[in-house]
Amino acid sequence: MTEGQTADISAMIGPELPYLRRYARALTGSQDTGDRYAVATLEAILVDRSLFETGLEPRVALFRAFHAIWSSAGAPVAEEGSDALEARAQVHLASLTRNTREALLLRTIEEMRFEQVAQIMQVSPGEAEELVTIALREMERSVLGRVMVIEDETIIAMDIQSIVQSMGHEVTGIARTRDQAVALARKERPALILADIQLADNSSGIDAVNDILAELGDVPVIFITAFPERLLTGERPEPAFLISKPYLEEQVRSAVSQAMFFASTETLAA
Q: Which residue(s) pair with 147 in the sheet?
């Protein structure tokens, strides 16, 4: 590959990298594992340009290359020496129909059209749609747990609570500020935290989550934000999932179901 060709591909891939990292993190349940496969994808493209098919949209081409690399490695989640959250995730994942989580993440979190999901996974659009349907059904019934909501907008908080409860999960409460969030988490440990970034008293949802994780240890987190790329910096901790505002109910249901795969055994009802 010439220097000019490398520069052209880099220019196309660069804007899509934060979203590939988000997808990889959600798919593997691990920042380290997700980043490792994202890097492996970039290295493979540099060696073999044909992996990045320029006839496709850049984002689709990049995700397709990632899917090929990740699938060829056996679609790993937890590895030897991984933490308890990843190990429990692998147990749950073993019971799911093959390729369903990939399709669900691409469709709901990455907001791909079914045609794009089909191109990435090299299936028909109809098969992609069926995989998403299967994933939603299997994941929603696999794990139930306690969910904490950090959100200062009353209407949004009530909507999120309604969605989560309709899935069979218990909402431990709604916090509108950093201090309220920490107090609520101390009162009843959640299996999952769903948090906004900007809170009622101008405190930070990120700071609230960091305070909670410092006390409770690993708890999966879903952030709702208008700027998801700002949280994909490579620094720790990164959230399990990012949902962009304005969100769709389908996105919330998908993220909650999948993030629950990485909840600890102590906080799960299943």
A: 171, 192
Domain boundaries, the chain: 3-139, 143-267
Beta strand spans in the chain (E): 146-150, 170-175, 192-196, 221-225, 241-244
The closest alpha carbon to 247, from 223, 221, 219, belongs to 223
pLDDT tens, residue by residue, 114-162: 999 999 999 999 999 999 989 877 776 667 789 999 999 999 999 999 9
Given a contact cutoff of 8 angstroms between Cβ atoms, the answer to whether 268 and 235 are in contact is no
Domain 3-139: homologous superfamily in CATH: PhyR, sigma-like (SL) domain (1.20.140.160)
Please name the fold of domain 143-267: Rossmann fold (3.40.50)
Would you state the structure tokens that stand for residue 24, as one six-digit string? 């990889």
Please state the pTM of the whole predicted model. Answer: 0.63
